[in-house]
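Lecture notes, part 5. Sequence design as translation. It can be helpful to think of inverse folding as translation between two languages: the language of shapes and the language of residues. The source text, in structure tokens, appears below.
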């Protein structure tokens, strides 16, 4: 069973839900953002198999972020979802198209280029977490290794999606840049922040 996540109400009062707060912040900041859908397990959805990230993925085919129910209440869940939203921002606002053109034209530099993509995604994640009013992410407390080194976004089938790790320290650095609230800081190398700044709402 799955459901679209929303801010939960308990006995008539608002109950804090950090994942829902990230979703609300993303949808307020950018157009065409996906909803977050909780599923019992990632495998079996959008062409995901056992090799795909088991906690969260972004399916571009359906424009949905899927999160495993077991991951939803983890302290790192808001970051996991914010990272998926970073990919959604790139896909919906032209950055992914630019990156794909560069990768096709420069196959020998694919790993480097995909690393730039991931850095910008984590910077967007930090930006969205800041917009949601969440505390600074503690990636090195939550993870021992890079949580997004495997396939975690792309078209159906997800098991064929891009795979590249940038290391935990690099992820923490770029999340921290985004958490300053300055989206112009999300410009790793030749991937400028121009398209992001054009797309973001005040």
């Amino acid at each position: 069973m799955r459901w679209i996540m929303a801010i939960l109400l308990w006995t008539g009062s608002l109950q804090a839900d950090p994942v829902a707060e990230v979703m609300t912040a993303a949808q307020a900041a950018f157009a065409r953002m996906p909803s977050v859908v909780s599923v019992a397990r990632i495998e079996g959805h959008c062409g995901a198999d056992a090799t795909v990230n088991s906690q969260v993925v972004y399916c571009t085919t359906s424009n949905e972020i899927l999160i495993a129910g077991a991951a939803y209440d983890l302290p790192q869940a808001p970051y996991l979802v914010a990272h998926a939203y970073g990919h959604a921002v790139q896909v919906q606002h032209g950055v992914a198209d630019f990156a794909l053109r560069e990768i096709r034209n420069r196959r020998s530099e694919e790993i480097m280029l995909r690393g730039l993509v991931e850095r910008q995604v984590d910077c967007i994640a930090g930006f969205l977490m800041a917009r949601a009013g969440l505390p600074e992410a503690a990636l090195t407390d939550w993870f021992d290794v890079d949580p997004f080194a495997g396939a975690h976004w792309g078209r159906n089938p997800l098991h064929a999606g891009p795979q590249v790790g940038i290391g935990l320290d690099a992820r923490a650095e770029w999340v921290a840049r985004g958490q300053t609230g300055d989206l112009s800081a999300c410009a790793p190398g030749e991937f400028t922040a121009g398209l992001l700044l054009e797309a973001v709402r005040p």
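The translated text above is only one of many valid answers, since several sequences can fold into similar shapes. Confidence is low (pLDDT under 50) at residues 1-14.
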